[in-house]
Amino acid sequence: MILHILNGDCALPGWQSCGFSGEVLVWRENYLHGVIPETDDLDDFNRIRAEELHCLAPEKTSEEIFTELQQMHRTLFSLRGGDRLVLWLDRCPFDQSLKNHLLRLVSLMSEKPELYLIEQDVVWNEEAFQRYRD
Fold this sequence. Notes:
The protein is α/β, with parallel strands linked by helices. It has five helices and four strands, in the order βαβααβαβα.
């Protein structure tokens, strides 16, 4: 399995237009705002983060946000040794905090996927993704 993680919804159309193989996951979390819990218990982490994010996005309930966070983490943790994880990030503070969180999560995995970090100082649109087509 190949899992591509994108840094936001705005990158998804460009990625989709390139026909990459594998699954894609838009990581919808902002680690620059609110409390970042110091716990390895992802249920607790996501519960606290859901409350924090609900304050930033009150149009969604904390329960809805919690469910989304849990699903993102379940998808990541479904990877096994031999699978590939591709992180498409830029160098902004948002993406750097995302990278730190994702690398920490991968370090906790008993079976680690092959990790590919594609980090460029670009806006991830179709033109930027095209540079990485096979």
